[in-house]
Amino acid sequence: MNDAKNPTPDPTDPDNSAWEEAMSRDFDARVRDLHEAPLDFDSVKGKARTIRRNRRAAVAGGVLGVAAVITPIAVVVGGNADTNSDKPDFANPSPTAAETSDPTITTPADVAPDYVVQGEWHQADGDEIELPRKDYSAAVLWDGQLVATYFGGEVFSVADVIDEDGEVVDSFDTTAPVVVNDSGTTIAWVGTDGQVMTRWADDQVSLGEVDLDASGEGIAYSAAAVTGGPSCYEAEDGCMVYVDSGDGQPQVFDSHGVNDNPVPDAVDFGDASDTGLVTYRDEINDTGSCGGLIDLGRTDATPVWEGCEIEAGPIAPDGQHVIGLPAYYDGLGLSEITVRDARTGAETGRFAPEGGFVGSWAWSTDGRVILDAYDGANWHLFALSTDGALEEIAEQVKGPDFDSPFTMVQH
Predict the structure, then answer these.
(1) 75 burial type by CB count under 10 A (0-12 exposed, 13-18 middle, 19+ buried)
(2) 329 CB neighbour count, 10 Å cutoff
(3) Is the pTM of the predicted complex or chain greater than 0.70?
(4) For the segment 310-366, what is each residue's pLDDT rounded down to a tens digit?
(5) Residues annotated as region Disordered (predicted)?
(6) Domain of 96?
(7) How far, CA to CA in Å, does 46 sit from each of 102, 176, 193, 197?
(8) Structural domain total, the chain
């Protein structure tokens, strides 16, 4: 409460030592979290974005402490905050989509994918639903509902289950964003008590437990993917949850408990599909990462393809394509993102924003990669087809390079 006796500190006052001390404590605590809990790139990126969202108001008032943290990183990606562009000055070098290098907003509302922008859920049918919060950092579509995750404090997150009218019908704690199976019928997460949870329309069940207090691991456990279902009670439904761990020893859980890791050399999972495909990394070092894609349906269980040139990411709902990420990246986002044929690893589409970067990405139900990208002044939301065609599917939003207004909705 602001009164004459206890005035509210002005965050824009450079002499406000109390405010500077509070910001310093907050930053130091979060740095300790990162040291004490080794995370993969997605986890660090998600935590960093949450910190950035929570500091939005302070940045608007001129936060010197945040600028000191962000500026050295921004130099790496080459963003120019003074640039003012009505259209993205982005290049799309894919020869199959050269004509789309200057994308326009042409996607019809009846086929547009779901996405969230500044706390508003834009649904595939064209409806725009106001959400109870504006700081959701990740979301999935589950049984016609949006399951959106936000950072709930110093360590864990909270997932809200939101119906089609924007009402929160349930909430639960989780170590990381929730994952959903290909058909959208089953979700999975690692609870803050270490339980590996699954849930479908009629019930929920734990498939096992991890030790969140294990030395050297901290909160690094997270659900990477869930396959099968919808029910995770019966073995015949084939429900499996792929769990990543900070110690480089991922695990797989089913209705009988822990299974052997189907990719023994993997240090973490990228994704898994109902068709038996699994993307993974088997090496992470100072120069990048190596990994590939394996088909569990093969009798010899050898990789379909692997290497150190790209990182195999999320698998398309139809199992035909995979998002390809750079094997090494730094800064606030990616310099490029590609689409790969799941069976060969061959590139079929590419987007490389000139003078900017890609911030987040996800597959949509219509089989396109949805991504947000920054051009130096504005954030854009694009849909990248598997053949490289690019469309801008939302109005651009002006803002800083460290705080995208868009939240991807994973399918």
Answers:
(1) exposed
(2) 20
(3) yes
(4) 999 999 988 999 999 999 877 789 999 999 999 999 999 999 999 899 999 999 988
(5) 1-23, 82-109
(6) 85-107+265-411
(7) 29, 9, 21, 21
(8) 3
